Structures are given as structure tokens and as C-alpha cells.
Amino acid sequence: MELIKATTSMNSAIYACKIKHKRLKPVHRQFSYSAFMLSIDLDELDQLNKNIRGFGYNRRNIYAIFDKDYLPLPELLESEQQTSLSIKAKLEHYLRSQDIKLPENPQYLLQTFPRIFGYQFNPVSFYYIKNGDAETQVVVAEVGNTYLEKKLYLIDNKEPGSDWFTLKIAKDFYVSPFSQVDDDFSFKVSPLIKQSATEEKWRDKWLVTINNENQNGLILTSSIQGRRKSLNALRLAGYVLRYPLMTLDIIMTIHWHAFVMWLRKLPVTNKRDTAYQQKNVLNPK
Asked: I need a surface site. Which of 78, 157, 165, 206 has the fewest CB within 10 A?
């Protein structure tokens, strides 16, 4: 059946995720929720658009990916190329601007929350840049806030003796009213591995940790734990019932917990007062 025709021969997939946030200072509070993220091979978008019912590329559908939602690079906005360039073209432009040598026969995988019924909010997306041997060369994190501003973080340090990528860097970005713009981000990102029948089952897991730290230590830790599943129309249809308003639910959950922390009288960082501290922010408000 067309509905259960899986993309097993493709690199694109779905990751069923458990997302956790744990605040350690100045008060303890934690929450978690279930969601899913699409893992999209950027060279397969047209094929997915054609073959997967319920999915659209640059067109409205239940689930959709639009080029304009990603990588709003200011130099491309000024040249009016932002709306005409593909995500892949913009990603390659960014990598070259960071003096990253593009691998031969590259593969680009985007881990992201899709639009659902036209609504889009992405707290974070990840771009995996792989070579022709499917080895990850570098990872780019695209972090977003509730003002729809974005900032890119190039994660190119591989842990010794490991396939994990790590980065500790000044945040320079307003993410939450309960953290400082000049805090640090600490990323730890696992590789993406397409499991074969002979590989251990754990190898289809995807793990990410993002810590918010300052000079006094760890303030907030966020994590994503995902399990790879085949991408097909039947699974997407099931997720309509399981996560009918996922993106709206995510942003409402974030605002609810922010309200609770405000009630507990946590110090609030005003965005307007800290705008001058932001650096290299995309789509600034």
C-alpha cells in the first residue's frame, strides 16, 4: 500500500523524541515532553514531496518544510535571494563563509520540527554535513527563540576517540528571560547512524545535550533523546492523532513554565535592554 510504503532505501527518517529541560539555578524545576523531529536528506525533499502523502515541500500540507523557514542569512536577504534559494544552497553558502571545506559527494541531513497545519516554531534544528562515506564532518545548530530570531553555532570539534561533536561557546543570544545573553552554551551531539539489520539496536538512537552555563556553573540543561523510525505516510497520519498541535503545544509549554518561574520571582532579563549584547543574530527583532 502507498500509505505504508517506507523510505527504507532513503536517508530521510522520523525520530520519535523525548525532550527534557532541567533548571538547577536559582531554583530547581524540570519538565519533559514527547515530540517527533524529521530527519531530512536535503537532496530527497522533492522525492518526499512527491511520494509521501501528508508531506509538502514549499507547499501547504499537514506537515511541511519551507526553504524560507531556515537559514535567513542577512547577506542573502540583502540580495533578495533568501526566498529563492534552497536550504541546501544556503547551508553551503554559510559553510563556505565559515571556511569549511565542503566534502566530496556531500550529504546534508536536517533534524527539525516541521510545520504542522502551517504553524512553525523551531527551538533548535541541526544540520549534519557528511562526506561520501557517510561520516559526519561538522554539525551546525540553528537555535531559535520565541521572537523567531535565530543564531547559528558551528560544532566542529570531535571528541577524541569518539564520533560525538562538542562545542562550548558564548551564547550571545536571547533565548530565555531567565538566563543571561552572555552565558555560555555547551553542546554535545551524537552522530546520526542509519542502522542496518546487523548493527546493534542502540545505534539508531540520537542524543543531544545543550547546557546553559555561566561563571558559577551549570544553570540549565536540555536534552533530546530520539529513536529512528522509517518515514512513511501511515506513520505521519498516526502522528496527526498523537501530536495534532505539536508545535503549538511546545511553545505553550515553554510559556507556561516561564509563567511559573515568574510567579516564583526569578530575576527576569529584559530582551530590549540586552539587545546590544546579541551577536550575529539572524532575523533580529
From this structure: 78
